[in-house]
Amino acid sequence: MNKKTILVITMMIAVVVIGVGIFFAINSSNENDNNNTNNNNNANNVNDNENNKNQNDDNNNIVNDNSVVLYFSATGNTERIAEYIQEITNSDIIEIIPQEEYTSEDLDYSNDNCRANLEQNDDSARPAIANNIDISNYDVIYLGFPIWWGDVPKIILTLMDTYDFTGKTVIPFCTSGGSGISQSMNTLRSYEGINFIDGERFSSGTSKDEVEEWINSLNLE
Description:
By secondary structure, this protein is of the alpha/beta class. Helices cover 48% and strands 13% of the residues. Helix 2 packs across helix 6 (208-217). The relative contact order is 0.11.
């Protein structure tokens, strides 16, 4: 093999080596760029998630400032909705406990002489409340109850007659098998000096997501 041939082969090998080196250098650079981009994107995502968390916390602080869920529940349906609201809003929660507990016989609506029916048909009925309820520190009150004979149970009127709701925002919610909340709103609005927001009726099968959708629709600030 003459010197000229050797020189040509050497130059060809050098070109190949240089080309391979350039190829790997470019790929390494692209990989670094991709890694940097991914790292930047991940960092941005973390920051975005943190910002969203902070924003959600801020929204919760607006909605939940000085709020309480105050409820009466005889069979547990209203209690379940009340607990959903408490969890969603991070409010305090207070149960209205009757002095005399309601039994299944008391709630036998097919019996005209059952306790619940007698109370609902007596305009002066005000069943006693067993526990002390302090609402003085709350500006927003979610007020829950079952619908009895299309209206609020009379123990809710005991509550309204006993405690001062003046200047507070009251958001009623109820549970029922079919009756709406409109008559209950009319009854509650007979108490003056209170900022009532139109309430909502829930069925026994209402989900937590449905309750949250309602709360978000209130646009409390």
